[in-house]
Amino acid sequence: MAVNIPGLVSVIVFYVLILATGIWAARKSKQEEKKCSGDRSEVAMIGGRNIGTVVGILTTTDSTFIFLTTWVGGGFINGIAEIVYLPNRGVGWAQAPISYFLNLIFGGLFFAKPMRNNQYVTMMDPFQIKFGNLMTSLLIIPAVLGDIFWSAAILAALGATMAVILDIETYLSIILSSCVVITYTLLGGLYSVAYTDVMQMIFIIISLWLCVPFTIINPAVADIKYTMVNYLYQDPWIGKVEVNQICRWIDDLLYMTLGGIPWQVYFQRVLAASSASQAQKASYIAGVLCFTLSFPSIIIGAVAVSTDWNQTDYGLPTPNERQESSMILPIVLQYLCPVYISILGIGAIAAAVMSSADSSLLSASSMFARNIYKTIIRKTAAEKEVIWVMRTTVILCGAAATTLALVTNSIYGLWFLSSELVYAILFPQFVCVLFIPSTNTYGSAAGYLVGLTLRLLAGEPFLWIPPLIQYPGISFENGTYRQLFPFKTFTMLLSLLSIVVFSYLASFVFRRKLLPVRFDVFKITDKTQEFPATPEEQITLNDCNNHKLEPDKNHM
Fold it and tell me: Is 424 a domain residue?
């Protein structure tokens, strides 16, 4: 198959438009920096808390929770179609629409308001204030790795997609996409990310919905209402959850719903909002939009199940038999749609990938520049220096993600494991730091150790890590062990319990002087551990009006 020249030209034109939008937004960012009397780095990280309601809704929908098949981005639109198409899965296992909806609703109800009212700049700020620099340094590891691995995974997926539709080398699309993303993220920070996300989201919605009718009316496609519950070319796409899989299904739903909350890409949007109520509103509406935006991918997956591939240029064996299920969406667009429609589809996929990658790069660089460099490594760093560190980190993280996308086949497994570590470690810590004021650094360290240890000992099939802890109901399938017990949620709950219990024990031991105060290495007996730090002792958490924070009354 020759290179698809019209498609390639269209993709290049689209990339130029995205880059131009990002550069225009960078100019707006510079204007905001000049107006800002507070921290210039806040403009790059959270847009000076001046992201409008419409932009906030669209970008929150696009970049909120980095989860397995749960972004309205590369993973979201490709992942749902793949799950629906797989013979042993189907729409019953496509939990992303439900979990993403609940995720955003819970985030808006419980977490957006306290985070925005305290005017934090990154998600790690409350950890740094309450648990100190050492624990923050440890807690930031799974968050940053998750961002890098996710960017790498979706860049690799884009490369494979363009290889299918455009017939170009995979590495070319990976390098081109990453260069575009790094450039506009580097220049404009959150402003470039937010405004390009709006453009990308509109393109995704229009393109995918235009593709759907053409796939349904293709002569090779049977009635998807019939194949929903009847076997034709493969198992019905409605899917089925076996009795012994119910606990695992619930575990995955909770993991994607709750574990998606403590991610910087979501709180970038929350903290950039002009007010707490605006952040909550954006989160609620985004939840509804996320559920709605899953429909095109579900339909495309159903179409793939209903297709007689022998009547198409793709031929036999089927995508599933060729182990190309992960690329089912671009395959459907390429072989069941007219050329001009498939070009729109590849544009939608490219837009989705870039909108996911830019948020991840900004997330990782913001946390490192603020919570590691400015607060730990070089406390006297000027704002300009912090911005340059942030930009350097964008380049380094982008280069790391691009390299991983080019050289490894296990990115998906690495990201999957890192996102589970966020659920097992960060979510219980996040709950404690915001809602359980009696917890302290000793409890945080204990919870971290318990969550990390139990999750690793449960094994990971993607990385060929055998389970040293075999929970009830474990099965052996296709050469790998699979835990049917809800071990993810069990691990998270034990981590949460450990934080609370060990915090109480440490406080009891030192306050009752069962151990000398000199052994209190985390100084929980100091007044600053009983009450929040004063504004002068806190990280500089000023907004663009240079408004000083008041002590957080919730921690008193």
Answer: no
